[in-house]
Amino acid sequence: MLSQRNAVTQTKVVQRTRAAEGRAGRSARAGVRANADADLGKAAARENKPLEKANLFSAKFTPFAGDASEEYSLDEVIYRSKSGGLLDVTHDMEALAIYPPEYWKALFDERVGKTTWPYGSGVWSKKEWVLPGIADEDIVSMFEGNSNLFWAERYGREYLGMSDLWVKQCGNSHTGSFKDLGMTALVSQVNRMRKMGKPLSAVGCASTGDTSAALSAYAAAAGIPSIVFLPADKISVAQLVQPIANGALVLSIDTDFDGCMRLIREVTAELPIYLANSLNSLRLEGQKTAAIEICQQFNWEVPDYVIIPGGNLGNVYAFFKGFKMCKDLGLVDRLPRMVVAQAANANPLYRAYKKGWDKFEAVKAEPTFASAIQIGDPVSIDRAIYALTETNGIVEEATEEEMMDAAAEADLTGMFNCPHTGVALAALKKLREQQVIAPSDRTVVISTAHGLKFTHSKVAYHEKRLEGLESRYANPPVVVKDDFSAVMDVLSTRLNK
Ligand SMILES: Cc1ncc(COP(=O)(O)O)c(C=O)c1O
Ligand SMILES: N[C@@H](CCOP(=O)(O)O)C(=O)O
Fold this sequence. Notes:
The chain is α/β, with parallel strands linked by helices. It is built from 18 helices and 12 strands.
């Protein structure tokens, strides 16, 4: 008890000190901001344009790895480099670096939680680092991002012996997954291109359920037709109804995700349908803001570990890019160690990692409760390997039982996790057991979707209906007669346990 009281007093002292530091920091940042604004004003004046219209920053497509002189405007419809490799969005880092780290911190901090269009969005609050050239009126946003960085205090302490565990709730979003972050960027760019007269009749994607939900919602908001290719009977009912409700053309195809992906690539090469999967690097520009947001939420400090469930593998690179930009522009001083967590039933990255990256081989992805990552031939494999090698990264896997147990266990401390987040939590558990992650390491688990999208498997778990699984944390409802003594019997049995 005494030590608890000491801890509370200590926390209050830390809070008061931080508040004082915060006040001093805010006024210093306001000064930096005023100076940098004056510089921006001068630069705009040189261009003879009002500040907000001056094109001070820019971005373009370049090959992900390859000829640095090959480049394309973001207004071009292009998904691959000349050699057939992946593309990346490259920013004019020199222009961004004209402004000191304190300028960017102050600017980003100032925009959080406001209604000012479009900066109240967690993605567009970082507009200069995302799509600097797009006009505010072309942006299609639902004010995505700004998601809770949940301090998993009880889960960390009681189940993992950790004191600094956080869960970034990217699934607490308009369509219930992190895909909204990328889709606002991509659909905004499509909106701009259509206004410019580019012949793009629709946007399209292959999906395991979350990309399609986000694409159809953002396209509907902008009045752009959308087409989604879904593997028949392989996504949840909640995910299926999302594009249906948003008026998308939904093709339910008798194949798996990898088959849908192959088809959409062929179709978008033939028809004026803009490809909205993460093969298109515009998506990753929006997704990377979650990493910048994590640094911001930690007052511009970098966590030690970031654990991400991986499928098509765009997101791990997006996070890497966000952290790297923060480091390169001096907002933080290092990169976190990145961990990708895969379902054992769909683990091509894990297998390649175990072979020392010697050889990557696509696999036939088997069914998994983490159905959104049932992917055997990830399009961003090269991006993922790069992000992991640059951060001394790790890949872990989780069996069906491990992921469902981990999600259920964490739910007992107030969360409501989807199976994909369960995969990441199970990976964390293993890394704690192996003593790779230490008790005080600041660790962030990326929760990629809302648990409410996956109630079917969660209910089946709690009703012990999942074949081959013990369902260790099952908590089925108790069926009781409409009778006072029957209710009292149940309560006394339970309460005396
Ligand atoms: C809920 C969820 N988690 C994780 C992922 C994996 O993300 P990525 O494909 O970028 O690796 C996806 C989609 O693939 C997803 O929908
Ligand atoms: N989980 C994804 C799979 C496709 O990923 P993408 O990021 O390449 O669009 C989905 O929900 O469809």
